[in-house]
Queue: 2 jobs
Job 1
Amino acid sequence: MKFGSLTFQPHKPQGFDFHVFRVKPETGLRLTPQPDMHSNIAVFADTATGQIHPDWISQSPLGQAKFGNNNFNLYWSVLCPTQPDYREEQLKYIAEVDRQSQGIWLNSHYFADHSHCTCPRCQELFQKSGLSWIEWRRKVVTDYMAQIRDVVKKDLVLSLQPDPVSSLERYGVDFDDFAEYADTFNAVMFSKNYATPWYWEMLTRGFKKLLKKPFYVNFYVYGPGDAPQDVPTSAELLTVTARCARVGGVDGFVYLADGEKEMAAFQKATVANVALRDKLRTFGGQPVQEFLDRVADWEKLVK
Ligand SMILES: [Zn+2]
């Protein structure tokens, strides 16, 4: 069981097996890849490019894929995944970032959500394809994953939205198609609290049942601009990780934080909660013990 950090700053918090830097977050900002870190790229979520090319923003009967359209859960702009210039540019960018770092973690490499995209180009491509709407969207996404796989020479980790049931209908994502190209999956389970771990355990069981490649579960610790009262407590994070570890077969846990300061505060609070760590020892078999042993290793860091 591996531990990974995913950070907005080019930081490598201690006590993790690998570190992922958000080189291109959904804002569209492009930061310098780090040679000793993996690089996370939001592909079609790109607010900056959407401002320059508003006609590239994904369209639907319920409006565009942009912040403020409350028909969807979007805090940024998502571009149409068939825009040829953008697809080409991203392929080159991904290849270059791969060359300059430890490998590529993608997110937003699929349609914005259900009923996207209905721009004139997508409507024409769909009509010409002779496929059903769902199958056409799947082909758009899968074909692009094949192209990306060709240019990524190191590890390719494909993030998944926390929806094991409807990802095909919503995003055009077929887990079996993706398994052909991904070295590992990353099931993103961000939340500002984990007060009810039952649901996250259920999602983990769903992914475990469906994914044909190793997978990580990705939790939210502390994002940029958050206040301490906005984020999950360390007790919630400890509990929810133990509950998901209990499922068995999760290959690692990845924690999202702004930078090393926020991660260290989480680790310190976690280590201090001896009573909860002892209680969680009774929550399951070997994977739970393994997770708690990893947490115990953090004791050395916070002295
Ligand atoms: Zn489109």
Job 2
Amino acid sequence: MKLYDMDAMDAQEWRERGFRRGDSFRSKQVYVCQMCRTKTNEILLGGYPGWGVQIVCPGNSFTEHDEIEKTLRRQEEVAAEVEQLSPYVDEAAHRDPAVRELMRHWEAEQLLFQVKIDVLRMKFAGVLDDVAGIAELDPAMLREYRPGMRFGGKKKSLDMRQDGH
Ligand SMILES: [Zn+2]
């Protein structure tokens, strides 16, 4: 199986339009989804209106994937809010000490988000990994990515999965 080096800038068939929209190929790099940690090295060609490469997370068609995404987004929103307000905590706590409790509450909320994400990720834990042509994973070839492509169909729960591979 031919593996393409996505870091190399040389003329590769997929750049030279040797492929068609919707074709896919395998890369030397292995992409790790930031949501569910599922690994894949399948690269899909297409994109609209341009031409580009996309990575579709094999976990994207499951409801738990949305759940992780929503929770992570909320976690990031709260973290950004806390960061933006933290310079004012001391001053505000002078006026009302409850402000410190509020900050503590937000920290606890962050932990709760994190635990939820961890538990949901455990359901994925490699069961959907789709890495072909690579016998041994080289940590230096791992690339984290945030999935952009949306699965359009009706999502099902991982618990409902029965093909069992
Ligand atoms: Zn994923």
